[in-house]
Amino acid sequence: MTRSPLPVCGPEGPLRATTPERVPAPVRAVLFDFGGTLFQVGTYADRIRTVLRQPVGEREMDRLLDGLETGLTDPQVVEAQRGRDVSSRAHRHAFTTWYASVPELAPHADALYAQLRAPEHWVPYADTGSTLARLTGGGIALGVVSDVGWDLRATFAHHGLDQHISSWVHSYAHDTEKPDPVLFGHACRELGVSPAETLMVGDHPAKDGGAAGAGLRAYVLPAGAAPGAHRGLDAVLRLAGVSSGA
């Protein structure tokens, strides 16, 4: 029987006694999620106004946004989200189905999806660039592990941040989604580090926090930060043992 590198736990604790290392392995690599962690896409209101190409008042915009919110519970939209990030086709279908759940936006579903893939529509958080620079300057290897339907390198390059990243793991290219250990393991191998030496940073408790199930450490940020806001990534510097420079 092949055993997991992690102890098997019952309801009360590990089934087999283990002797933990006296000192945890130092962090040699950090893996980052993309959207909601390092970048955020422009506001839906701005994106909608762009595709409609006409003035949209606040009351009308609220109605459109309410429609998108309601669409999240539409059975057809919910079904389209299953396996959304395992292929580019599934990703496009999931998002365009959701956009099209609002009648006024249905003719513009493809344009809204094109925005989602466009580098200029993504905004780095205020502390993204400085955090990546300090980590790489401190000798920490960096990777991106993202549930996504397209290659993110162009977005990082557009904002001058691609030089910090040495491993790119996109879910659609591996036919699976986080927290599948395959994705985290692939990034660790590309960076030449063990899972025990690696920290995963994201904003989704199950997907990004699930890296712990693959033997990594995980740090989960609270969701909902606005585009361009300060994300609180200085905590990652502390976890990685890198000086904040303050």
Rough outline: globular
Structural class: alpha/beta
CATH architecture of the largest domain: 3-Layer(aba) Sandwich
CATH topology of the largest domain: Rossmann fold
Distance between the termini: 51 Å
- Unreliable stretches (pLDDT < 50, length at least 5) are none
Amount of helix: 25-40%
How many structural domains in the coordinates? Answer: 2
Strand runs, count: 7
CATH secondary-structure class of the largest domain: Alpha Beta
Biggest sheet, strands in spatial order?
Answer: 5-4-1-6-7
Question: Using only CA atoms, what is the Rg?
Answer: 20 Å
Strand content: 5-15%
Tally the helices: 9
The largest sheet is: 5 strands, parallel
Order of helices and strands: EEHHHHHEHEHEHEEH
Q: What's the rounded overall pLDDT mean?
A: 93
Give the CATH superfamily of the largest domain.
Answer: HAD superfamily/HAD-like
Tell me the layout of helices and strands:
Blueprint: E1 29-32, E2 39-41, H1 44-52, H2 58-71, H3 75-80, H4 88-99, H5 109-117, E3 122-124, H6 128-137, E4 141-146, H7 153-158, E5 167-170, H8 181-191, E6 198-202, E7 217-220, H9 234-239
Parallel strand pairs: 1-4, 1-6, 4-5, 6-7
Antiparallel strand pairs: 2-3
Helix pairs in contact: 4-5
What do you see in this structure?
- The protein is an alpha/beta fold and 246 residues long.
- The protein is 34% helix and 12% strand.
- The protein contains 9 helices and 7 strands, in the order ββαααααβαβαβαββα.
- The strands form 2 sheets. It has a 5-stranded parallel sheet, with helices on both faces. A two-stranded antiparallel ribbon has the order 2-3.
- Strand 4, helix 7 and strand 5 form a beta-alpha-beta unit.
- InterPro entries: HAD-like_sf (IPR036412), HAD_sf (IPR023214).
